[in-house]
Amino acid sequence: MLLAGLIKCSLIDFPGRVAATVFTQGCNLRCSFCHNQSLISMRPPVSGHSIQIDAFFRFLQERKDLLEGVCVTGGEPTQHLDLARFLTQIKGQGYLVKLDTNGTRPQVLADLVEKGLVDYFAMDVKHRLDTEHYASGCGKPLPLDHICESIAYICESGVPYEFRTTVVPGLHVKADLEAIGRSLEGVDRYALQHFRPSPGLPDSLNQRAGEVPLLIESARPQIEEWVGELVVR
């Protein structure tokens, strides 16, 4: 397991819980709007801030009276073959686990649930659930059936969850957001996230961040009719 960063205390990453957030290195997608681009490669950058596993678990041991959970994010955590062992260690210290995922490896999600290793899922839905749009949303072609399988599995898993879409100017329009919302009809919780400017992204994209609030508000009334709870953050 390659750990690339740690937020020692967060009140927003794990809904309803005081949690630490740990970032794993490596992702199998290439989203053009990713604000964690240093985490994409499976090899951390020379200037990166990697964290040793032993140090991470010492930190958790020291914070047992202050924290309730750990949010495991990335990158894409399911890329790591030792993820189950890593989560087992976290659970063994008495913490709840929230797993952030892009949904590309549904069998891994099922395996983790069967082992009782996940207490909350957050899955990104990048774009409309058709091959062309989804490829533009995640930067590469991929088997869309894996995404759909992950959505269905999470909904049926019995584990609390949310799906979320980062709304990106130039990538999404109102009709796209409504199409995503319609495809998620009946889910418990869906979040529309504002695109945030980042130094690693093109100025042409960062400068359009101000378009996002109006775009979200234009699609919000329709989406609210389809999902159990719509969150805007």
Tell me what the structure shows.
The protein is of the alpha/beta class and 233 residues long. Helices cover 33% and strands 20% of the residues. The chain contains eight helices and eight strands; from the N terminus they run E-E-H-E-H-E-H-E-H-H-E-H-E-H-H-E. An eight-stranded mixed beta sheet has the order 1-2-3-4-5-6-7-8. The longest helix is centred in the middle third of the chain and has 13 residues, at 144-156. It is globular.
Principal-axis shape equals: globular
Largest sheet: 8 strands, mixed
- Major sheet: arrangement of strands: 1-2-3-4-5-6-7-8
**In percent terms, what proportion of residues is strand?**
15-25%
Structural class determined from secondary elements? alpha/beta
The averaged pLDDT comes out at: 95
Classify the helix fraction into a percent range.
Answer: 25-40%
Number of strands: 8
Rg for CA atoms: 17 Å
Number of helices: 8
Q: Report the end-to-end length measured between terminal Cα atoms.
A: 30 Å
Question: What is the N-to-C succession of helices and strands?
Answer: EEHEHEHEHHEHEHHE
Uncertain spans: none
